[in-house]
Every structure is written in C-alpha cells, then in structure tokens.
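Archive record:
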Amino acid sequence: MKFRVQSYLEFASWKRKALPYLRKEEGWNNLFWQIIRTREKSSRKSWAGNIFQGGRVRLSALLTPSNFLLLSSGSLKAVEALGKYVHLRKWKLDGVSGPVNLVNQFLSSANLQPKDKPSISARDFKLFQTTSKINPTTRDGYELHRVEGTQWPRARVWAHQFAMEANPPMDLAAITQMAKQMQAAKNLFILRNSENILCAMAGFGRSTERYQVINMVYVPEELRGKGMAEELLNRMILKSQTSGYKGCLLFSEWQGARNLYESMGCKTLGRFVEHDLA
C-alpha cells in the first residue's frame, strides 16, 4: 500500500491528525510539543506534514524555526516517501532531527548524504525515560532550590561550563539563553548541601502532556564522583512527580559504558540525532 505525504495550510488541521499519533510514542516525540507551542504563538507559517498509509498516520514532521526538519518516530517506508517528496521539491534545509534510523533513511532518500558516507556534523544523543521501577531516594543534608537572583551568576558560569564540555561544544549564547528561560519559568534548580555549598544544577527545559525533560545536568569537576548527579536527579524526578507528571525524559551524549541514567534504572528509548546540513 502506497504512502502519501499530506501537507497542511492550516496548522490546526495538522495538529488534529498528528497529536493522537505523537502521543503513542510521547517520549520519542517530546520535541514536537515545544515546536507546537512556539508555532501557536507565532503568526509565521512553515511546513507541517503527515505521511499516511491506508488512511493512517505513519509519520509526522515539522519544519522548525531554525529550518530543521523534525521527524517523529515512525515507519522507514514513510520517511523514505518524505525524503523523495523533499528531494523532488528541492528543499534547502539547515538540518534534520529525529530517531537515528529515520534521519539516516531520510538523508539517503532526499539525496542529502551519500549512502556510504557517515555523518560528520551530527549531535548524537541517547534518549532515556524514567519508569515506575525507579524509586527515587534522597540523602539527608541536601536541598533542591530554585535558582533566584543571587544564584544566577553561579548558574550562568555552570551553564557556560556545560556548553564547553559538550562534544562538540555548544553555542554559549544559546545555552545561556536556555538557562535564563528556565530560570524565568522557575524551572532551573541548584542542589545545595547543609554547609551551604552549591553542588549541582539541572532544569526542566520543556514538557509534553505527561513528561518533563530534564536538561543541563551539571556537576562541577571538584564534586564529581561523589553521587551529586544521582542526588540531583532523584530530587528532580520527585519534584516532577509531585507536579503530576508521569515521568521524566533525559538526553545524554555520553557514549561510553556505565551511563548514569541506565544505572539509575531509566529505560533507553534509543538514539536521537541532530544532523546539521548548513
């Protein structure tokens, strides 16, 4: 049965068809909720589409404000149809984001990358989701505090360190802006011990209907290896639970063994990539 790419003039029409599909894999598709909120606040129009087979959605996609094509979880055959659609129309994209297997299939089908040449300009993340098996426990002598004005200078320095330690390094201005936005939304937190020492930082960067995404997990170098990250994450997970969310999502660029999120009992959803074409 053939796949059909359906584009939409009205964003609300795309959303009505896409949301029930996106909810089936809400963790994988978490970025869509952020882009949907941004689009609904803007008068600017950009491409949105669903790929159908036999009247059923098999893939959703959006063009983001940064001119990246965001792919949902879905069928390889559906993304192949989308890639041919994009190639035929000679789109100029600055990047593609989504599950690694779908992004690779899209690049091949859209003729944007030779099949035998691996990407050299991609950020590669493991995506994790907390589960009901995790029972967050906390240690005495630590408290989680929202970042207020007096803590912002430290939070800003740590945000810069977080950006510089990424591989490859992230844009300092963009990460600082992200930290400032989380602080303004009262979603940026610092872990402090009983001696009033600031130990670690993390924030809720975005949310779906049932999950919050924990971003910018940072522990200063002199406190690493002492359980600060696990203490921080346990408290962030508890805070999310008390706010009524089913669970949390976390992205990790760490490709080595013994990933902290795995050791805590998080479920590995898979690899998510951001492929820069600019």
